[in-house]
Amino acid sequence: MIQGLNMDRQLLVSSLIEYAGRNHSGTEVVSTDSTGREYRTNWSEVRSRALLVSSALQSEGVNIGDRVATIAWNDHRHLETYYGITGLGAVLHTVNPRLRVQQITWIINHASDKIVFVDADFLSIAESIAPDVPSVQRWVVLSDELPSTSLDNAVAYEQWLREFEPISQWPIIDEWSAATLCYTSGTTGNPKGVMQSHRSIVLQTWATCTGDGHDVNSGQSILLAVPMFHVNGWAIPFASAMAGAKLVLPGPDLSPEALVRHIQSENVTFSAGVPTIWLSVVQHLQATNQQVPSLRRLAVGGSAAPRSLMDTLEDDYGVFVSHVWGMTEMTQGSAGRFTNRVQELPRDEQRRRQAMAGRELYGVELRLVDDKGEDVPRDGTTPGELLARGPWVAGAYFDLKDDSTHIADSEGTWLRTGDVATMDSEGYISIVDRAKDVIKSGGEWISSIELENAAVGFEKVSEAAAVGLPHDRWGERPLLFVVLEGNQELNKDEILEAMRPHVASWCLPDDILAIDEIPHTGTGKIDKKLLRERFSNHKWST
Ligand code: AMP
Q: Quick one: pLDDT at residue 488?
């Protein structure tokens, strides 16, 4: 081998904020905290304050590899901790506050977090778990002053930072060192810890910035509607620094009114988030007759985005939807930009592709296999389990012995995503379902996602969820839940008729129930496990 003669520079998260701080002091980071107060800062200040966070952590005895948790909304302080923790070589462990208290306790103990940064809004969580998380030596409340609390080792972030001088620079560490830790939602069993290295974060951030990724660039004003505790806000807090883009952090208020207000007042050009958020934004825009002229592109993913949502956003609001697929284990795995060839296709063909879950993105190699582990053709119709591998795909879980999620064969190690999908020759994937959500009727598979998309395509249905429930004859049959627009009466036949053109007749739901609200998991996905449990005694009328 003859070695390449490049410089030996490690790919570190600190290099992102160093770059942004050096070049983008004029680029704003706009943030709303949990009290509703707005802050206007910039990348240079974020860097300076992150150096201060590192200094304070150092004085607490935090070392390379120590885990430091955050339980926080999307705001500038959370952003500072992102860089302050990782810059020092400690591991940023973002905790999802919407998990059950028992799960949060389990996660913090599993991670052995030393310090926890907690939003004042989540103080009650900290207070209730504190006696059961002995590794935590300090609670830093993300506020100006310490609210009244029963925590005996708590300090207010702003007062705490005032005690220190910033460190002069971040250490150069090995790029393979752990940078972040994020636990999967764990709807079954305990959550699993995905630990990303600095190298992985930098590489996936680069992919996020590419035109085929999220196209994050210095001309963008980005509204972060994905919680920073969900897969690190889909890498957008890192990508905005790499690109030097304006970043708008909305705090706790993710109501459609607040999101639209931010988009209009900050000239937001790009945002990302789960479909539920954008469904509510579209409903609000329609109800209030408003437009969002600055918004050009949305990345929608995390669960299946219905085609009707994409059509409305593009036709009525001029917003292109890039439908993306990904997981905690890899962040973004696909992207939705049209290729040259697709741009030349008739509109309806383009839209059909747009409704798929994006195309394989360079860096995450995808493969479909059947239940014997044999490859399934990339013909756009044959379903198989989606496997993934790549330099930023998790190769193992943190401190987990029995790992059935990774498989090794002659092709190497692959991550089993648990998603059933089809793939075509151009790399477009369609997620048929989560393997555990597929409805198995008489030996055939019904996609719950297909039913939901067909139902929300009907104007009187604002949200839908389909689950398989036991059926004497067929094993399982689909039950559809709908949330109706306004105060409409449920008319099952009308909904079935509207779905009929989009779904094979044997797949149509056997029953439809109207409910006030579809339950969602902590990361905004439909909580089908809960629906199945709640309606396990449902009696089929047919
Ligand atoms: P999480 O690790 O919480 O982000 O969940 C990852 C899972 O979300 C994937 O394995 C999919 O089941 C689901 N998911 C993500 N993006 C999509 C999408 N575009 N369409 C359908 N399901 C998706």
A: 84
When pLDDT is averaged across residues 114-139 and rounded to a whole number, the result is 97
429 CA from centroid of ligand 1 (Å): 12
Span 80-99, average pLDDT:
96
Residues ≥6 apart with Cβ < 8 Å to 21: 43, 44, 46, 47, 48
Judge if 509 and 482 occupy the same domain.
yes
> How many angstroms does the Cα of residue 326 sit away from the middle of ligand 1?
6
User: Cα(53) to centroid of ligand 1, in Å?
Assistant: 33
Give the residue, out of 183, 310, 327, 429, with the most ligand 1 atoms within 8 A of its beta carbon, to mutate for a pocket test. 327
pTM check: above 0.85 = yes
- Cα(3) to centroid of ligand 1, in Å? 40
Distance from the alpha carbon of residue 71 to the mean position of ligand 1, in angstroms: 22
- 155 band by pLDDT with thresholds 50, 70 and 90: very high
* Neighbouring residues of 187: CB distance < 8 A, sequence distance ≥ 6: 521, 527, 529
CATH number of the domain within which 109 lies: 3.40.50.12780
162 and 183 housed in the same domain: yes
User: Which pLDDT score, from 0 to 100, does residue 304 have?
Assistant: 86
As for ligand 1, residues whose beta carbon falls within 6 Å of it are: 184-185, 231, 301-304, 323-328, 357, 417-419, 431, 434, 523
Q: Report helix, strand or coil for 325.
A: coil
Residues 32 and 73 grouped into a single domain? yes
For residue 97, give its domain range: 13-322
Closest atom of ligand 1 to CA, residue 523: 3
The set of catalytic residues is: 184, 329, 440, 445
Question: What residue owns the CA closest to ligand 1's atom 23?
Answer: 303
Q: Please list the helix, strand and coil fractions of the chain in percent, rounded to the nearest 5, in that order.
A: 30, 25, 45
CA-521 nearest atom, ligand 1? 3
Closest residue to atom 7 of ligand 1, CA basis: 327
- Residue ID of nearest Cα to ligand 1 atom 20: 304
* Count of beta carbons in the 10 Å neighbourhood of residue 238: 29
Distance set, CA 92 to CA 89, 219, 492 (Å): 9, 28, 48
Boundary residue ending a domain (322, 352, 371)? 322
Instruction: Report the number of distinct structural domains present in the chain.
Output: 3
Residue 443 and residue 427 share a domain: no
Residue with token string 């994020």: 182
> Alpha-carbon distance 455 to 409, whole Å?
40
Q: Using CA atoms, how far apart are residues 140 and 116, in angstroms rounded to an integer?
A: 6
Q: What is the largest CA-CA distance in the chain?
A: 73
For the beta carbon of residue 525, count every other beta carbon within 10 angstroms.
Answer: 18
CATH number at residue 422: 2.30.38.10
Q: Which atom of ligand 1 is nearest to the CA of 300?
A: 19
